[in-house]
């Protein structure tokens, strides 16, 4: 019996690559000017995730540091109580300068997440950012509202890259700015 089971397993090994749930490599942008990328971005849509659950009016602000890293400040307001805001600060780095679209971000060092820029407007007015696992995806813009045609274009890009855009949540940006 043991020998028969072993033979079965050995015969099945060549089939495993076809049964794999491994996704294709995620294509990212070839160029990113970090100076132009800095500033505030409004979250237009996202795939649901636990760390932004119950938040609206979410922004991400990036600031270049002298050491070449990027300070990342994410803010969002509670949907149930918009007067209550949450803020988290972290930092990002480009591990390989030859792949500037592949950043790593940490809010709880030494743990890093993959922040890959999938699409980027030539004028840095919108961006599509995700993770190679396809678990995370964000549509970002410099303004609180993104043209619908641009949004649909970004959704098509995300779909082609293997993201489940049916799960995307549009994020309300209806909070008054208070600093």
Strand content: 35-45%
- The Rg value, from CA coordinates, equals 20 Å
N-C termini distance: 72 Å
Overall mean pLDDT stands at 87
Q: Summarize the main sheet.
A: 8 strands, antiparallel, barrel
Structural class: alpha+beta
Q: What's the arrangement of strands in the largest beta sheet?
A: 1-2-3-4-5-6-7-8
**CATH-derived architecture:** Beta Barrel
Query: What best-fitting shape do the alpha-carbon axes yield?
Result: globular
Give the proportion of residues in helices.
10-25%
Which CATH class is shown?
Mainly Beta
Structural domain tally: 1
CATH fold call: Lipocalin
The overall strand count is 9
Number of DSSP helical runs: 4
Runs in which pLDDT lies below 50 for 5 or more consecutive residues are 1-22
């Amino acid at each position: 019996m043991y020998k028969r089971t072993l033979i079965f397993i050995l015969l099945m090994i060549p089939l495993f690559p076809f049964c794999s749930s491994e996704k294709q490599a995620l294509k990212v942008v070839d160029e990113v000017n970090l100076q132009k990328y800095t500033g505030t971005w409004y979250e237009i849509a996202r795939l649901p995730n636990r760390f932004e659950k119950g938040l609206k009016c979410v922004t991400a602000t990036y600031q270049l540091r002298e050491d070449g890293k990027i300070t990342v400040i994410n803010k969002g307001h509670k949907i149930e109580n918009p007067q209550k805001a949450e803020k988290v600060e972290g930092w990002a780095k480009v591990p390989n300068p030859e792949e500037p679209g592949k950043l790593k971000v940490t809010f709880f060092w030494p743990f890093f997440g993959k922040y890959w820029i999938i699409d980027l407007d030539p004028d840095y007015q919108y961006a599509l950012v995700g993770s190679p696992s396809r678990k995370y995806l964000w549509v970002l813009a410099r303004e609180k509202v993104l043209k619908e045609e641009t949004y649909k274009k970004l959704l098509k890009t995300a779909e082609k890259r293997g993201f489940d855009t049916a799960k995307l949540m549009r994020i309300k940006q209806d909070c008054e700015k208070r600093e």
